[in-house]
Amino acid sequence: MTQPTQIIIHAARLGNIEVIQELIRQKADPNAKDEKGYTPLIIACYNNQYQAAKLLLDSGAEVNAQDHGGNTALMGVAFKGYLDIVELLINYGANLDLQHGNGGTALMFAAMFGRNDVLQLLLTHGANKTILDVRGLSVFDLAAQQGNEKALDILQN
Q: Which residues form a coiled coil (predicted)?
């Protein structure tokens, strides 16, 4: 991993806007990946750094970039429950139905981890509730396994 890649990913983790701006001015790649395939955008989103995520998106970061496990920024924030960043990613064209290596989607993460406000937002924007993971489980199955009755209500209405 190159030094600019290390620096931009670290700056994204911390939300250091000035460093990200300077690196982009110096032509650092906003889609650079670390050894796990994490991009600055994935890292910024996972660490709840809204302004850094927006700057990266405005600078050409790929909204649907996937790490080596197939996870996207949207999947990370659906798991974490960062509603404002979910909305940001949707506004920048995030694919709501991408699946990671085990077939999970952002909607499934939201249901499994009780992020019901995220679940509702994803559904409002057209997330597909019929997708199955590699085990053949749907978002309904995953919500039921977790005892997330509220998610089941949201999914059925």
A: none
Radius of gyration of the chain measured on its C-alpha atoms = 16
Q: Which residue type sits at 99?
A: Q
End-to-end CA distance of the chain: 47
Rounded Cα distance, 63 and 57, in Å: 7
CB 105 within 8 A of CB 97: yes
Half-sphere exposure of 115 (CA within 13 A, CB side): 25
Interval 119-145: pLDDT, tens: 999 999 999 999 999 999 999 999 999
| CA 77 from centroid of its chain's CA atoms | 5
Q: Measured between alpha carbons, how far is 20 from 54 in angstroms, rounded to an integer? A: 11
